[in-house]
C-alpha cells in the first residue's frame, strides 16, 4: 500500500497570516519581504483582509512566469474562487482594485487585445511636445503658489497635484474636476471603508464627461476613446477611462513623491540637486527598483491546480505580484551600483501582455515634475527628520503622505 500523503492546507485554511499591508506600511519593506521568504519561500500566503487570503509572489522569475502565461493565470476576477463563491463581501474595500471591470486590466486574450488597443492608440496620438509644455507650465504655476512662503508640502501641494492636472488635461477635464478625481482615487487605492464611495464618485465624473464629449467632441483622449470602434458601449468606454486615469494618477504621484524623497534624503543625491539630468535620471531608476509605484499588484487567478515555487496553488486562488520584492531578488539585482548602471530589468511596469502602456508618458511627467521642483526651489531641504516621513495607507503602494520642506523664498509675498 502506498502511504497516504499528508494533507496540505488550502490557502483559505491557513490562519495567522501576515497582512499584505504590513509590507507597504512598514519602514523597511524588504525586511518584511525577507521574513516572508524565510518562512514560505518565493511564494507566500498573506491576508488581504480578515478571512481573505492570497498568494504573494516574491520572486522575479516566478512573476515573469505568471504574467506571461495567460492560459494558466488569468486577470479576470470572475475566476477568483472567493469572489465567485461570494466569500468576499460586495462592500469589501478590495472591490475597486479586485472586482471585475470591463477594461483591459481585467481581461485576457482577444478581449484584452481589443480593449488594450484604444489605450495604445490614444497614447500614440498624444502630442508629447504639447504635453511636455503643459506639464512644465503647470509645475511652474503650482510652485509659484507656495514659493513666496518658503515652506510647502511637496506631496499634497505638488506631487499629488501634477499627475492630476496632467491626466485631467489629457482627458479634457477641468482643474476642479481633476481635484475631485484625486480625492476619489485616494479612497479607491486605500482599499479601506471609503474605497467603494471613491469608486462611485470616479465613475460619476467620467460618465458625465462621456455625455459632454458626445454632445461636444474635443481634441482629447475622452473623445478619442468615444470614437474608437473597439469600445462597444459606454460602460467599456467608462471603464477604459477608469483604468487610464487611476493607473496614471496613482503610480505617477508615488513615483514623483518617492523620487523627491530620495533626492532630499539620500547623501548620494542630496549633494547633486543642481547636478543636471544624470542625477535625476539615476534617482528615477533607483525608485523604480527600490520603491516602485506599485509595490504589490493585484492580481492573477489560477485556472487550474498547479505549483509555483513549491507552493500548492489551487484553481481559483488569487496571486498578488510583489514587484518591490521581486526587484530586490538577488537573481536579477545586486547592491553594487557599478554593476547596476543601465539595468532596467525591474518589474515596475510589469511584463508580458499587461505591461504598462504609458511608460514614456509616465516618465515624462515624473521627470519634469522633479526637475522643475529641484531647480525652482532654492536651497530646498526637508523640514522634518527623514524617519518621520509617513506613508498613505494602502496594501498596494508606498506613497509618502507628506514631504514638508523649507527653501529660500522667491516671488511676491501674498497679502493676508
Automatic annotation (TrEMBL):
TM stretches of this protein: none
GO molecular function: heme binding; iron ion binding; monooxygenase activity; oxidoreductase activity, acting on paired donors, with incorporation or reduction of molecular oxygen
Record region (Disordered): 1-22
SUPFAM superfamilies reported in the protein's UniProt record: Cytochrome P450 (SSF48264)
Family: Belongs to the cytochrome P450 family.
PANTHER family: CYTOCHROME P450 YJIB-RELATED (PTHR46696:SF1), P450, PUTATIVE (EUROFUNG)-RELATED (PTHR46696)
Name by which UniProt lists this protein: Cytochrome P450
Gene source species: Saccharomonospora marina XMU15
Amino acid at each position: 500500500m502506498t502511504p497516504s500523503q499528508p494533507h496540505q492546507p488550502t490557502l483559505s485554511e491557513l490562519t495567522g497570516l501576515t497582512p499584505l499591508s504590513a509590507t507597504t506600511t512598514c519602514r523597511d519593506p524588504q525586511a518584511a519581504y525577507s521574513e516572508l521568504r524565510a518562512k514560505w519561500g518565493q511564494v507566500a500566503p498573506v491576508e488581504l483582509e480578515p478571512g481573505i487570503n492570497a498568494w504573494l509572489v516574491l520572486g522575479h522569475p516566478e512573476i515573469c512566469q505568471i504574467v506571461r502565461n495567460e492560459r494558466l493565470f488569468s486577470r479576470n476576477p470572475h475566476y477568483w474562487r472567493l469572489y465567485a463563491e461570494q466569500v468576499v463581501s460586495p462592500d469589501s474595500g478590495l472591490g475597486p482594485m479586485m472586482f471585475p471591470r470591463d477594461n483591459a486590466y481585467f481581461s485576457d486574450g482577444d478581449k484584452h487585445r481589443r480593449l488594450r488597443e484604444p489605450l495604445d492608440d490614444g497614447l500614440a496620438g498624444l502630442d508629447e511636445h504639447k504635453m511636455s509644455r503643459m506639464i512644465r507650465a503647470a509645475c511652474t504655476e503650482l510652485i509659484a503658489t507656495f514659493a513666496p512662503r518658503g515652506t510647502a508640502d511637496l506631496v499634497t501641494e505638488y506631487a499629488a497635484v501634477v499627475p492630476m492636472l496632467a491626466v485631467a488635461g489629457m482627458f479634457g477635464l477641468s482643474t476642479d474636476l481633476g481635484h475631485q478625481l484625486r480625492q476619489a482615487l485616494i479612497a479607491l487605492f486605500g482599499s479601506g471603508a471609503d474605497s467603494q464611495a471613491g469608486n462611485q464618485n470616479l465613475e460619476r465624473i467620467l460618465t458625465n464627461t462621456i455625455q459632454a464629449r458626445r454632445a461636444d467632441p474635443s481634441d482629447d483622449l475622452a473623445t478619442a476613446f468615444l470614437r474608437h470602434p473597439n469600445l462597444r458601449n459606454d460602460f467599456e468606454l467608462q471603464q477604459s477611462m477608469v483604468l487610464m486615469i487611476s493607473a496614471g494618477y496613482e503610480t505617477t504621484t508615488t513615483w514623483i513623491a518617492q523620487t523627491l524623497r530620495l533626492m532630499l534624503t539620500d547623501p548620494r543625491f542630496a549633494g547633486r540637486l543642481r547636478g543636471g539630468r544624470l542625477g535625476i535620471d539615476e534617482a528615477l531608476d533607483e525608485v523604480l527598483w527600490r520603491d516602485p509605484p506599485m509595490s504589490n499588484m493585484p492580481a492573477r487567478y489560477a485556472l487550474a491546480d498547479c505549483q509555483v515555487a513549491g507552493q500548492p496553488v489551487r484553481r481559483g486562488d488569487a496571486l498578488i505580484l510583489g514587484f518591490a520584492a521581486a526587484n530586490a531578488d538577488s537573481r536579477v539585482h545586486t547592491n553594487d551600483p557599478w554593476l547596476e548602471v543601465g539595468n532596467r530589468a525591474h518589474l515596475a511596469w510589469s511584463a508580458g501582455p499587461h505591461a504598462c502602456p504609458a511608460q514614456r508618458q509616465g516618465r515624462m511627467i515624473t521627470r519634469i515634475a522633479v526637475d522643475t521642483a529641484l531647480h525652482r526651489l532654492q536651497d530646498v531641504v526637508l523640514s522634518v527628520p527623514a524617519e518621520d516621513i509617513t506613508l498613505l495607507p494602502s496594501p498596494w503602494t508606498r506613497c509618502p503622505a507628506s514631504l514638508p520642506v523649507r527653501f529660500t523664498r522667491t516671488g511676491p509675498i501674498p497679502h493676508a
